[in-house]
Amino acid sequence: xxxxxxxxxxxxxxxxxxxxxxxxxxxxxxxxxxxxxxxxxxxxxxxxxxxxxxxxxxxxxxxxxxxxxxxxxxxxxxxxxxxxxxxxxxxxxxxxxxxxxxxxxxxxxxxxxxxxxxxxxxxxxxxxxxxxxxxxxxxxxxxxxxxxxxxxxxxxxxxxxxxxxxxxxxxxxxxxxxxxxxxxxxxxxxxxxxxxxxxxxxxxxxxxxxxxxxxxxxxxxxxxxxxxxxxxxxxxxxxxxxxxxxxxxxxxxxxxxxxxxxxxxxxxxxxxxxxxxxxxxxxxxxxxxxxxxxxxxxxxxxxxxxxxxxxxxxxxxx
Length: 318
Description:
The chain has a domain at 5-223: Rossmann fold. 32% of the residues lie in helices and 20% in strands. The chain contains 11 helices and 12 strands. Strand 7, helix 6 and strand 8 form a beta-alpha-beta unit. The radius of gyration is 20 Å and the shape is globular.
């Protein structure tokens, strides 16, 4: 079972440069959340802050009653054992086999014998579809396989929180679809709290229970997937629908002339909200909401065509 992470008034700077300020949101226990944002908005910095690799200037990160932004080294070490991390490039040791890479955390952080370690490693490698590849070196396999090997290593200590940094980086759309399905299937099996940092809009629209968007040194919005996918807030609407019209420009913010030129322009309609990915076995995850549930509960009319594969338009208030 995953744990809840409560972030309150978090601020981080490097010298005079503020990365983001007064960030507050809660990662619900056992749910999949995605954090989006233009390049340079501090998404990876946020992951490092959540695991205590970076100290915030202000604010708190509460996990099971402990504020990791202010706790002792010993407390931080204990809390970190709740986490598994999938780094952007897999972060494999190039001279070690996949088996030894996956076994590394068990050998470093537990007193388990090699027989028990082998059982755990093979279980996790089977979970990510890598049985038979355990003797290969990271340089002998594809980028997608390295991602899966990194995921197996992140899982060997049975984490309650899984942090995933740019899982689609370097992957083609087909492999990205496969790894997205793997995340959904894993969440159904281990019930951990997932936070995925990504630029991939398809991932954000179909995988998570919750979406957040970092923009211009603050958190623009965080909430249930359907809330953001039906939002008319300019930054959220523009980013989640990959549109050119809006406040985001090539250098993050558009200048006054660019914004003035867009005055009176018709915004493209919001696209339909797609169905959320389901586990491969067809059994809904514990945290998975019924399609259209958030819209219905909050009196929001979703874009035309939303959820049409599963429920009628009248069921969601169209």
